[in-house]
């Protein structure tokens, strides 16, 4: 079968949208929990619950938006109108979310955070689900999809760099000092507002590039009448379910790591400012190792490369749990750099494996339901994120965490548990499920042959 190579400009125009998508993902993963507890003053259990509700709402809307985009027909295509509107709404609600409402009542603050977060995640869904659904429509080549998603995830790393490397310096630069009870307290509220404006503009503009420079292919068939029965294609696709649950467990582990990183440096190392440098030690090896993983995936298969990457992360987490708090920051940075090599697989390989499973569904059912598949994909990944944030909030509440003060040993140990063994458990579950994933290059060629016969 003849290989279909995409033009470089198409890969670049497609990939750039994930600068904003991953920028927002990183901000939400690394900063939202800490922003709620340490800046807004929300109790950890309420903060974790608010994020969980927001994520669940986000997850519920994902398949709905995917379903709608599958059955939308406009002169601009099925996906791009949603991306355009969602990008504008993301900017608006990012600014609202990171503007401190100065609400002292815990119940009112909880509901404010929950409602605004639901609006923000809805805007993210409008952008991200249709964007992801473009992947199988741009190419059906097994290896070209890995290349396409390599470009996408390279831009995703750029977004992660911006959020991880620039967020805290911006927050710190615009923060103010106030005197309270004779003590100097740093007020991060104006810093978070400034950060949201800058990051919101970047998020919106990166989406606009994809909207205006990617041309959607004309659907080769009449768009079918919408039916809720279409969601049944998911359970008829075992390969899809396997990679779906693999990614969900992976996202739980990633969220546990990202959500506790700031707490680790602020309260174990007593050096909050080093969080940005820690992100860079993790992400620089991630960025530079991505081409190696793409090449390795062509040699040993996407599945086994993904398993190897998660195995590297498990090793890094064990080293951190047993020795990170003893051997100090240089050791921790070294382990982060090592872990970053494995961390790269989570950016490229799940998104490269997913379209192959979508093709399997088309071969079996004869229906193109990319939006439903990608909507369900983000539904389960965000359910995983919601569970992880809830675990963090409840765990910190149980051990009586109080923000912006020295923590007792029980709190410090809990932070280490979240960053170590608990995250490891979910990576191990992801590996176990992925072992049973059946589609390799040869199997995918057979799937494509079946599709072309239709």
Automatic annotation (TrEMBL):
Q: Which InterPro entries match?
A: MFS_2 (IPR039672), MFS_trans_sf (IPR036259), Na/Gal_symport (IPR001927)
Q: Which SUPFAM superfamilies match?
A: MFS general substrate transporter
Pfam families, alphabetized: MFS_2 (PF13347)
Alphabetized UniProt keyword annotations: Membrane, Transmembrane, Transmembrane helix
Q: Which residues form a coiled coil?
A: none
Please give the biological process terms from Gene Ontology that the record holds: carbohydrate transport; sodium ion transport
Top-rank taxon of the source lineage equals: Bacteria
Indicate whether Transmembrane appears among the record's keywords.
Answer: yes
Q: Which residues cross the membrane?
A: 12-33, 39-60, 81-98, 110-129, 150-171, 191-214, 240-265, 277-297, 304-323, 329-351, 372-398, 418-439
Q: Which GO terms describe its cellular component?
A: plasma membrane
Molecular-function GO terms, alphabetical: symporter activity
- Listed PANTHER family: MAJOR FACILITATOR SUPERFAMILY (MFS) PROFILE DOMAIN-CONTAINING PROTEIN, MAJOR FACILITATOR SUPERFAMILY DOMAIN-CONTAINING PROTEIN
What does the sequence similarity comment in the record state about its family?
Belongs to the sodium:galactoside symporter (TC 2.A.2) family.
Report the protein name in the record: MFS transporter
């Amino acid at each position: 079968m003849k290989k279909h190579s995409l033009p470089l400009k198409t890969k670049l125009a497609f990939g750039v949208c994930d600068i904003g998508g991953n920028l927002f993902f990183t901000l939400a993963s690394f900063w939202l929990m800490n922003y709620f507890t340490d800046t807004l003053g929300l109790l950890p259990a309420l903060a974790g619950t608010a994020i969980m509700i927001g994520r669940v709402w986000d997850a519920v809307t994902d398949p709905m938006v995917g379903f709608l985009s599958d059955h939308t027909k406009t002169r601009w295509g099925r996906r791009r109108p949603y991306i355009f509107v969602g990008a504008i709404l993301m900017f608006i609600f990012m600014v609202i979310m990171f503007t401190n409402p100065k609400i002292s009542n815990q119940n009112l603050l909880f509901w404010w955070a929950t409602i605004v977060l639901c609006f923000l995640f809805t805007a993210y869904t409008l952008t991200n689900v249709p964007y992801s659904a473009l992947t199988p429509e741009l190419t059906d080549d097994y290896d070209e999809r890995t290349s396409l998603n390599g470009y996408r995830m390279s831009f995703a790393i750029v977004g992660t760099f911006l959020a991880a490397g620039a967020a805290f310096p911006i927050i710190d630069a615009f923060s103010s000092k106030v005197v309270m009870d004779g003590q100097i307290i740093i007020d991060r509220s104006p810093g978070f507002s400034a950060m949201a404006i800058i990051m919101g503009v970047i998020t919106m503009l990166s989406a606009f590039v994809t909207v205006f420079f990617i041309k959607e292919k004309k659907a080769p068939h009449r768009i079918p009448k919408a039916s809720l029965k279409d969601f049944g294609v998911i359970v008829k696709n075992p390969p899809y379910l396997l990679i779906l649950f693999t990614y969900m467990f992976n996202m739980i582990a990633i969220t546990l790591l990202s959500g506790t990183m700031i707490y680790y440096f602020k309260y174990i190392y007593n050096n909050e400012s080093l969080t940005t440098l820690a992100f860079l030690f993790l992400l620089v090896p991630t960025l530079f190792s991505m081409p190696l993983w793409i090449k390795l995936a062509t040699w040993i298969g996407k599945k086994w490369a993904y398993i190897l990457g998660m195995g590297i992360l498990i090793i890094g987490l064990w080293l951190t749990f047993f020795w990170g708090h003893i051997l100090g920051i240089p050791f921790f940075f070294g382990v982060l750099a090592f872990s970053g090599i494995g961390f790269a697989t989570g950016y490229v390989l799940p998104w490269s494996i997913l379209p192959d499973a979508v093709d399997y569904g088309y071969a079996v059912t004869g229906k193109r339901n990319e939006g439903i598949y990608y909507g369900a994909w983000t539904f389960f990944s965000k359910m995983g994120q919601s569970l992880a944030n809830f675990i963090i909030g409840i765990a910190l509440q149980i051990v009586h965490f109080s923000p912006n003060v020295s923590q007792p040993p029980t709190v410090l140990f809990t932070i280490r548990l979240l960053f170590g063994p608990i995250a490891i458990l979910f990576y191990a579950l992801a590996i176990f499920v992925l072992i049973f994933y059946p589609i390799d290059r040869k199997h995918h060629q057979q799937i494509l042959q079946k599709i072309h016969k239709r």
